[in-house]
């Protein structure tokens, strides 16, 4: 049986808030734990007390990183066996909150004040609830459900290259990303040894995470309501209340928040993780620190996936290119013509007819 860890062996003794954000002090000395952790767990797999001591004796970033890496072969095998590459997608809404729970549990077991972490955990639980519910009602957890973009990419680059992509990104980096984006919470945990509570400004920013989730919730609801109305219209030819025939025949949502932003939910989602980084930076006083890696990775996913989504939409819906010119991708454009429904009721059919003729000409 392993003895309980000595205080200070899993996290550094910090003397200033700035030191909490130092990679060389708070992460680098504990990297050897990452290499020895699998053997320790395997050796004591049948000893719950020893496993508890290993957990507390391991730096929480290292154990969280180890878990995200351990998920990689699981995602890889399951995706290749089932020929379905949305395995990480199914747990996207869950893993970040598991890591926040991990920080809270580890902090309590180590005798640290977790007031800051608990407040972030509350936000994270709400974030998970919203995203998981939306993914569920869109059929994401149904057997065989998959993000249509994966097969599109596979068709472009071929099966061998797609397997390499699965190994290097889809099943691996994405898993680590969902851990890395939560690392600002580690800074808050470390800082609690010097400042156990948020300052008024930090508390205000942590509470600002909740309205961003609410914005996502409303955007999800508006998108869901539109597509339900569109499906009803296609089935019955009757226009549901709150919409016009032109809006439904257009095919994509230009109502509510989507009149001012092409992706309001994406804007809020990115803002959430940028704000979490800002809170960590504010807590430590270090505006540029190593936890930016996770935030940048997360923004990178949107930078790569959003243009692909829009390319598909522009090819599917003739009016979408006009929508792109007049409505901001994430944030509303303060200048410009904007989206005018009355104008588009006249212009839209013309654009659609021109696109139909162009398609017919190419098909000849």
TrEMBL record:
Residues annotated as transmembrane: 61-79, 91-108, 157-181, 272-290
Any single GO CC term annotated in Swiss-Prot or TrEMBL for this entry: membrane
Stored InterPro entries: UstE-like (IPR010721)
Keywords: Membrane, Transmembrane, Transmembrane helix
Annotated Pfam families: DUF1295
Domain of life (superkingdom): Eukaryota
Protein name: Steroid 5-alpha reductase C-terminal domain-containing protein
Source organism: Cryoendolithus antarcticus
Lineage per the UniProt record: Eukaryota, Fungi, Dikarya, Ascomycota, Pezizomycotina
